[in-house]
Batch of 4 targets.
Target 1
Amino acid sequence: MEQSFNEREAIGWMQENWRKSFIFSVAYVVLIFGIQYLMKDRRGYKLRTPLALWSLGLALFSAIGAYRTWKHMISILTTMGFKQSVCNQVFYVDPVCKFWVYLFALSKVLELGDTVFIILRKQKLIFLHWYHHILTLIYTWYCYKEMMSGGGWFITLNLTIHTIMYSYYTVRAAGFRLSRWIAMAITVSQILQMAIGVTLCILLIWWRKDEDCLCTWPDISFSFLMYLSYLVLFCNFFSKSYLVNTQKLKGE
């Protein structure tokens, strides 16, 4: 499947259809807030087994994808260096990971389903959650159709963190209690991912005129603003969830 996958057709399809990510995003917003309204006077569903299976499936997909993309990334780092690992566009057509890069882009539509579980279980839906899902979907499809420089790191890090995150969700949904420190560590890893993203965007500004690092201002601007907004929101989430609440508990 990996070897026979036609990445040129996939990239061509995405170039023609990437704007459909906006349609998915609008439908997503209408759906989640519509369901939330319908659930207002109803009791939440437990959904432990479906959620565990859902999270396990996404964890396994992320793990396989991370393995394949890291294999390519390590090869580039050891043979061509860090700059090429950021700048090169071979990531999108490499025989080892091209299939998983395309599936990664498509999976951002599937991941919108995370929010349905939150609403049906009547858990708190925060702005960061649905904002992150919408913008990541649009950015990922745009990134793929542009074969954007820096995309290799974005995809590889995202798959790696999602492997850990969805594994955590799987264990929690199965009914096991886990240390609060694990949740904190996952949030810290997400913050680190966003900080790396901002740093890569700054590097691309310096390198963009090089022949081997072609990228446009719209590409860099989109990436930088997205990563910066995520960095601020995740830091705020960490502060409110783990620092402020901990201080309140100690005060009580």
Target 2
Amino acid sequence: MESQRARQIVSSPDEIEVSYNGVSVWIDKIHDDDRTATVHLRQAMEERSEVAISELKEH
């Protein structure tokens, strides 16, 4: 995924399905470097990870 699209998803009022390594995630924040984002699993809202935006997939 490109950083521009990730930013659109974060600001969208619609629920857009995104996955990281085949697992559904929510994007919490796009970092200033435009290469990484903080995400959390849809099931476990407390565990957050910093991942490469290029590794995110929109469904």
Target 3
Amino acid sequence: MNQETIEEGKIYAVVSYLTIIGSVIAIIMNGEKKNEFTTFHNRQGLGLCLLWMLIGYFVSQFDNMQISLAFWVSMGALLFLGVMTAVNGSMKPIPVIGPLFQKLFKAIG
């Protein structure tokens, strides 16, 4: 992949990490051009957003500030890592769960 492809897809790659709506917008906007860099980050961003909602549902059942804080800090760190890899022009998957998102959402792209 060349630098031009990365630069073209950077904006949508970052947008894909901003809530589920951002992920859907980035997927739709990447529909025609099929930028490989953006597609990679679309899968990562969509996976993180869905994981955030799924785990958040279960964490909300506990009335414990420590559990909630651990959830927010860990998910926030993963989202920050994803955004920073997109900004830096890297296609490095999110640790542990990133390769799973690439397999689950391989139809996106």
Target 4
Amino acid sequence: MEHLERHGYTIIGRNWRCRSGELDLIATEGDRIVFVEVRSRRSVNRFGTPLESVDVRKQLQVRATAQVFLRARGLEHCKIRFDVIAVIIGPGGEIAELKHIEGAF
């Protein structure tokens, strides 16, 4: 979250849930609503990278959940974007790597 705020985003929601799924972070950047999927791994291992875990199924779920969020707030006509933040956690629990992919899907 601090990463987004440092880069001018305003967080308007965290861990928003409905029947179709959960939205990790919802932010605004200018006049756009940004839905951010956050993925982390302790290391790159047999499960792949955090970015690789945002597969087509997950993308469809996030999109569907975002539509529910927008309808519930009367924001269907707003500009939107889907970002991914991928985090690698180091051996001491620190953030070893953080990648923010704007417009990831």
